[in-house]
Each structure stands twice: as C-alpha cells, then as structure tokens.
Amino acid sequence: MVLAFTLAVPLFASAHAALSRDLRRISQVAIAAALATGTFVAWLAWQAFAASAWRGAGISPVSGLDRFGACILTLVALVYVGAAASSARYILEEHRTGIVSAAKVRLYYALLPLFVLAMIVTVTTDHLGVLWIGLEATTLTTTPLVALYRKDGAIEAAWKYLLLCSVGISVSLLGLLLLAYAGVRAGLPVEAALSLSALRAHAPALDSQVVRWAFVFLFVGIGTKVGFVPMHPWLPDAHSRTPSPISAALSGELLNVALYALLRTRAVVDLALGQADWTGEFFRVFGLGSVLFAAFVLLHQQNYKRMLAYHSVEHMGLISFGLGLGPVGAAGAVMHMIGHTLAKSSLFLSAGEVLLGRHTTKIANIRGLWRTSPRTSLGFLLGFLGLIGAPTSMIFASEFTFLMAGARRNPASAVAVIVALAIVAVGVLHHIFSMLFSAEDATRAPEPAPERFTITHLVVAAELALLFAGGLFFLTSRGFELAASIAATFTVVP
C-alpha cells in the first residue's frame, strides 16, 4: 500500500502541473509531493533495513526491497526533494526574467515527477520487462527538459541524448531477452524467466555461454545510460544544457538508477558463472578508462556546467572501478554512489545560482564570485572539495577503500587512479579559484545585485552536511559494515 502511494504522488503532482495555471501553486504542490514521496520512501527504506540484522542482506516482506534498492530509492527521493525545492527559486526566477514561458514552466513541473516515477518503478520492480520500460521512460521524460530552452545547442543535446540512450536501451533489451531465454532453457516458465528473483534462484542452471552474451549486451546498453567511456558522448551536453535542478537529478539520480539495473542483472550472471571475476573485469577496465579519459578532458573545460558533467563520467568510472575489485571495492562503490549524489546535486544547484547571478556558464567570464556571492561561493568550494575527495567527505572514504582494495588486487591500476585523481584535483581547483578569487575586470558587466539567502542555499547546506558527516561515519568500522551489507545484496562471493 505504501509503495502504491509512493507511485501515486508523483502522478498527482504531474497532473496538477499540467492542469493548473497558477505557477506558484504548482511550485508549492511540487514541493509537497516531493516531501510526501520522501516520507513514503523513508518508511520503505526503514522496512528494508529492518528486515535483516546489521550484517545481513535481507529483503523487506512489505515492499520486496533489499538494502541496495532501499539505498538507491532513498537517494532518488532525497534529490527529488532538493530539486523540487530549488526549482521554486530557479525556474520561477527564469520565468520572471522572461527566459522561459509559463507553458514551459508547466511542462517542467509536469515532467519532473514523471521522471522520478520512472526511476522509482525501475528500482522497485522485479520484472525484466518493467525494468526496461522504466529505464526507457527516464529518457523520454527528460528529453523535453534537455531541450527546454529551444536553443540550437539544447536541441542538439536533446537529440543526442534521445538517440544514444534509446539505442543503448535497445541493445540492453537483447541482453534482457537472452537472460529470459536462458531461464526458459533451464526449465522456468516464461513468467518466471522474466523475474530477477527467479533467475537468481535458478542461476546455477542457466547456460553460461548465453548469460555471458547477455551481460555483454547489458553492459554496452545500460552502460551507455551510466555514461561509461566510450558510450558517454550524450552526457556532457545533456547535463550542461538542462535547467540546473534537472542537471542535479540527472547526475545525482539517473546515473545511479542505471547502474543499479546493471548490477541487478550482473548478480544473475555471476551466480550462473559461479564467480565474479569475468564481469568484474568489464567494470574495472571500463571504469579505469572512464577515469583516465575524464581526468585529461577536465583540464581543458571552459564551461563550469560541462566541467561538472565530465566529473560525472569520472565518478561513474571510479564506482565501476571499485565494483571490479571484489567485496571491499563494492562496499567502497556504495559509499561513492551516496557521496557522488550529494556532492553533484549540491554543485549543480550552486551552479544554477551562479548562472542566475552572472548569466553565463563560461569560466573565463566569472571573476570575484566570492566577493559578490559569498554563500554560493562557499557551497561551490565545499562541494568541489568534497567531490575531489577532501578528507572526511564520503568520497574520501570511498576512494580510500578503493585504493586499499586496488593495492591488493591490481596495484598498477590503483597507481593510475591516484595519478588521474591528482590531475583532476589540480585542474579543477585552478578553475574554481579563478572563478572565486580572481580580480574582476572593471570593463565587464555592471556589478551584480547583492546576494540574498535562498532556499537553494538551504538545500545545498543540508547536502554538504550529509556529505562530510557521512564521510566520518563511513571511516568507522560500523560505517564500513553498513556499506558492505548493502553491497552484499548484489555481490557474488565464490
């Protein structure tokens, strides 16, 4: 029943946005719907975590969620609340200044909850077909948001996003059908062959060659949605062209949900093969390649939103690298997924404040930001420090875990990751310090208006507090045990 309410609330918010003409009321209902969704998700997550002992990996008898599903669902709800709250500031301000029309504001508020609904369906379903539909629905609901401003760059980004992600999801359908075919060949009824839980229960009976090919299609197809190099070209354009609250949702929510779907199917393949090394090599190699590629591209970025988008490529690569390092690396990947969600959401929301104040996304055109916008600048600086792994952040805890696991299993890869992280840190801090502290050019635009405290600053402050407090927790043995218990639900130990 609670899951039904969780699905119904975004539907109501979307319908209200489509039918109402009062933009401020639409915004208020959107925030209320996000809070209601968050409340229902919190209850579902509590049930999932309470279903097993601290070190266990049980499944909630109420929702069918395990700890990993509950974790991802919680992150979706958390970013949804933040995006809905900051949208009241961001999209309504753009409407006030004439950047977007009232019709586009209604479209924005109608599609945001449908996007969230598609992700909730993807995370909570056990059916392969529904999972595929949920993933495709995330593309269809966000493509109009990528093209919202109707500029040439935005329309091109939307087409690239729709084309590449839809092709990727189509490829993944072949993988899902091959998994179901392997289940039928193993004697399962067609209905059971489309169930992830049934496939896991009968995984040892599945044809190993069929499931290997299934995983190849799934990795390439869903990996496109995750943003692995070289399937990533849609990501920098889409994330940088959308309104900033949607950018926060795409980076903080969607990438995790796509990776969640891939890991669910990976568990079936690993159980069928009796080991995780074969699939782990895919994650390790593509993860390392994504990290190294993004590290060098980030050095040459001239647009701060594209810089954040390439950070998504880098961090999904880091998560993938950790997933190829066994149970310890998987625990680090869980920490990193949580930390990346909080850091990237706060940074895209802060980037929105910068864009509203300076009306440009070019790094070279922003100087002296700390003097004119100290609250936004502080959030921007702390967010980037957390993102590059400053001590006590969740990302510091996860990268420390990755490197410990990598030093034991593949020292050369661990050294390559360290070099890439150092390059990223130096390059990014150079850009950020130039934006915040460089002297302003007196011949440029007139002095911006004094900054005022907004709801976006409140959301950013809350996310940053969780980012650094959570890092301290994950550095404790109890925090690692929690991350390991979440990772145990999708990790196969021979």
Q: Could you walk me through the main structural features you see in this protein, from its secondary elements to its overall organization?
A:
The chain is built from 20 helices and no strands. The protein has helices at 2-19, 23-50, 67-96, 102-124, 128-146, 152-185, 190-193, 196-201, 208-226, 234-241, 244-273, 277-298, 304-323, 326-358, 369-372, 374-387, 394-409, 411-437, 455-474, 477-487. Residues 53-58 have low confidence and may be disordered. It has a domain at 277-494. The longest helix has 34 residues, at 152-185. By secondary structure, the protein is mostly helical. Helix 3 (67-96) packs antiparallel against helix 11 (244-273), helix 5 runs antiparallel to helix 6 and helix 11 runs antiparallel to helix 14.
